[in-house]
TrEMBL record:
Keyword Transport: yes
GO biological process: amino acid transport
Originating organism: Devosia riboflavina
PANTHER family: AMINO-ACID ABC TRANSPORTER PERMEASE PROTEIN YHDX-RELATED (PTHR30614:SF37), MEMBRANE COMPONENT OF AMINO ACID ABC TRANSPORTER (PTHR30614)
Keyword Iron set for record: no
Topological relation to the membrane, as annotated: Multi-pass membrane protein
Principal localisation: membrane
GO cellular component annotations of the record: ATP-binding cassette (ABC) transporter complex
Name of the molecule in the record: Amino acid ABC transporter permease
SUPFAM superfamilies per UniProt: MetI-like (SSF161098)
Amino acid sequence: MTTREMGHDAAPRVSFFNDPVIRGIIYQIVVAVILVGFIVWIVGNTAANLAAQNKTTGFDFLWKTAGFDISFSLLPWSRGSYYWEAFLVGLLNTLLVAFIGIVCATVLGFTIGIARLSSNFIVSRLATVYVEIIRNIPLLLQLFFWYFAVLKAMPAVRESIALPLDSFINQRGIFVPRPIPDEQFGFVWIGLALAILGVVALRHWAKKRLEATGQRFPVFLTSLAILFGVTGLFFVVSGASVTFEPPVLERFNFKGGLALPPEFVALAFGLTIYTAAFIAETVRGGIQSVNRGQTEAAQSLGLKENDRLRLVIVPQAMRVIIPPLTSQYLNLTKNSSLGAAIGYPELVNVFAGTALNQTGRAIECIAITMLVYLCFSLLTSAIMNWYNARVKLVER
């Protein structure tokens, strides 16, 4: 009796090399072997070239004296500091400008993105002009403009422009009063931390209450009251105080206060303005992706325009906004390396620039710098993915 006569067809036999599963495994093995061979060749070739030039490798240079100045540092720095301290200075300077840029670009980008959808003709057109101009001019040119054409064109020190609150601006930067907290101010930070925990708990409770009863709670005003109330209470009880040291003009420069160099101001401002234009387009696209029926439903409930946007439209648009927003955060952090072009002492300028040139350890310096930016990107992606999981729509 044949197989067909038995009521079923036998599966056709496939040759060993024509089996898609076997073939896929073979392709992966071949690619892996080629990749490993390429890496081995690169490492061997590099080692041979270094040996031919009598160059040593290793990270022992990190504990040697750097011997150069850094114009702006969040840590104590002198010519006698070590190269690992130079690395930390560049790292912190990069984190500082990236953090300020992300916060400011997010606020400005959301504002411009919503303004582009405004029913006010002038507001929407101005937002459109801003986006189309800023995002089509290379960032490096914008940094040159803010640094050379704006900040360096400011008056000299003796002709400084006076700003409110004992602040001054000139071609050497912006000078503002320096806050000097006393020893008891640590209790105020403890109070602020407790207040933030209370705000988080309040928001969680208010969300549960809204879902259960449909009644809204004034979260924003109550959160402000908690922050200022708890922090102020700890401030009064602990007897903490803060004094401000204003900048004072002396013979050649200002003394005292807090100096923000023009390189830092130009880089932070340029990154904010440039990235905000792309965030604005992301926000506009996310809002427009929300079904029109959601807006009409919110209108039928009698919600005001601001409430419709805050409670209905933006929460649904966030699932579209967050993925490209993450990319913009990564771009901003990596674009901070352009600060080397205007002399801002960020990581690439200090460590992959000056330190590399003085030590000759190109492989080590570049490898560490690449690893740092990789960690920045992975950490930012992890945080944004966690936030995306928190705000995504739950299907029922």
